[in-house]
Automatic annotation (TrEMBL):
Residues 3-103 form the DDE-1 domain. It comes from the Eukaryota. GO terms for cellular component: nucleus. Pfam families: DDE_1 (PF03184). It comes from Parnassius apollo (Apollo butterfly). This is (apollo) hypothetical protein. InterPro entries: CenT-Element_Derived, DDE_SF_endonuclease_dom. GO terms for molecular function: DNA binding.
């Protein structure tokens, strides 16, 4: 894929983890949630921030999103178009669910 890389979003349980005590900057974006899940509030907050950045850079994107209930339709995004996958297709479409990532297997008899 071509394009720009975004910072990884890490969602943890603690608002201010002790391990970040003397950390001035992180190479990731960090959010907190009691169960370390992505609730719709965090999803919307992240997308609105990204939409604002795209508006400033005069860029438009389409973002393919699975139909998880915490991924709601978000109104008034100007530079991000959300395209939701059809129900029950995530496991068919997403490469990681198709077994693309595997552990290295042992060679068969006679192979090196």
């Amino acid at each position: 894929m071509a394009g720009e890389k975004r910072n990884l979003l890490v969602i943890g349980k603690a608002k201010k983890p002790r391990c970040f005590k003397n950390v001035k900057t992180l190479p990731v974006d960090y959010e907190a949630n009691k169960k370390a899940w992505t609730p719709s509030e965090i999803f919307e907050k992240v997308l609105r921030k990204w939409d604002s950045q795209l508006r400033g850079n005069k860029k438009n994107i389409i973002l393919f999103v699975d139909n998880c209930p915490t991924h709601p339709q978000i109104q008034n995004l100007t530079n991000i178009k959300l395209a939701f996958l059809a129900p029950n297709t995530t496991s068919v479409i997403q490469p990681i669910d198709q077994g693309i990532i595997k552990t290295k297997s042992q060679p068969k008899a006679g192979e090196k």
